[in-house]
Amino acid sequence: MRPKEKHQARKMRVTVLTYLEKEGAAEHDIVVDQVCAALRAHGHKPKILGVHNDINLLVEGIRTHRPHLVFNLVEQWGKNVRGDVAVAGTLELLGMRHTGGGPGELFLRQDKALTKELLAYHGVPFPNYAVFRRDSFPDTGVRLRMPLIIKPLRMDASIGIDSSSVARSTTQMMKRVIAIHEKVKDSALVEEYIEGREFYVGVMGNRKPIALPPIEMDFSALPKHMPKILGRRAKWVPSSREYKGTRSKLADVNDVLKQRLQTVAVEAYRALRVRDYGRVDLRVTPEGEIYVIEVNASCYLEDSAEFATAAKAAGLSYTDLINAIARLAMARSRRPF
Ligand SMILES: Nc1ncnc2c1ncn2[C@@H]1O[C@H](COP(=O)(O)OP(=O)(O)O)[C@@H](O)[C@H]1O
Ligand SMILES: [Mg+2]
After folding, report:
1. N or C: which end of the chain has fewer CB within 10 A?
2. Which domains does the chain have, with CATH numbers?
3. Which atom of ligand 1 is closest in space to residue 195's alpha carbon?
4. Rg (CA), the chain
């Protein structure tokens, strides 16, 4: 048996680490049970550790479990949606191998302007943008063309994004910038709005990342007057017109476009130092220009969400996908940087 095979055959204790809405809450995200079932199917011993914002519970939980690997599904800490950085840092201080980015990698992709600076260095295309910070003048030398979309600089989950996020005049833009400063309490990122199709490309791997088949967001059932964007309601409010009018599906694209989307996605994934798995969101104009909208390191792994759907289209069952991620994390953390 070669060392690699020996390692793969090992049955591991895995702590599946997840965020809870309240300390001690009985409920957790459905993805947690799915990940546990997948790990169990390969003979591993998963144990759930749910945390809200008590650092002692996190440390004690890890010390008691003594896992070989932490499957890290935490996206926030208490009310802090940027807490994933500190959680990954804590796991590193505890000397734990864990799936997904370390604190440095997670920090890079959380700030959408920093993300663009890295993409620029690597020649990966993204929409022109300007940042309006709360306490200073806009840092821009570029002239932006209308329409624009205004988003929080460091949020996720489409927080602060809805139909009025798309602006067709400077007045509309400034209203939105102020709303983000005052309501979301974040800097505002103003981007050129890219009219066109929206795709999500899952990427897996470390030394040689591979791209999964593209998924497309279908906006065709949205009422005509609504901008074709995936705002907060489209993601989180099942009764809304935005939610009902949007649906993701395996993309029907020719091989040339598929290949181009996958190439750009892998370049973006590498540029942002994503580890193990992630999802790159892109838009393509009617003229065929591709733009990276966002890089989601450690994207949502729910069985019916975009990433797992794409993996299945590539012939990877959910069980195999989750175990492949665990193996990638183990293999990576045994190598020196
Ligand atoms: N520059 C852009 N052009 C067109 N649509 C955009 C642009 N930026 C964001 N969107 C729309 O808004 C959605 C959410 O934006 P995104 O930057 O991915 O924020 P989040 O991190 O909250 O998911 C995207 O899925 C897309 O539909
Ligand atoms: Mg997004």
Report:
1. C
2. 3-107 (3.40.50.280), 126-192 (3.30.1490), 195-333 (3.30.470.20)
3. 4
4. 20
Q: 243 alpha carbon to ligand 1 midpoint, in Å?
A: 15
Instruction: Pick the ligand that lies closest to the CA of residue 161.
Output: 1
pLDDT at 266: 98
pLDDT in tens, 90-118: 999 999 999 999 999 899 888 888 999 99
Q: List ligand 1's pocket residues with C-beta within 6 A.
A: 127, 149, 151, 155-158, 161, 191, 193-194, 198, 229-230, 281, 283, 293-294
* Shortest-distance atom of ligand 1 to CA 157: 22
Lookup: tokens for 63: 């010390």
Q: Is 158 helix (H, G, I), strand (E, B) or coil?
A: coil
* pLDDT at res. 33: 98
For the chain, residues with pLDDT lower than 50 are 1-2, 5-6, 336-337
Give the CA angle between residues 80, 333, 109 to the nearest 5°: 35
Pocket test for ligand 1, best of 149, 280, 300 (most atoms within 8 A of CB): 149
In terms of Cα–Cα distance, which of 306, 299, 295, 298 is closest to 271? 295
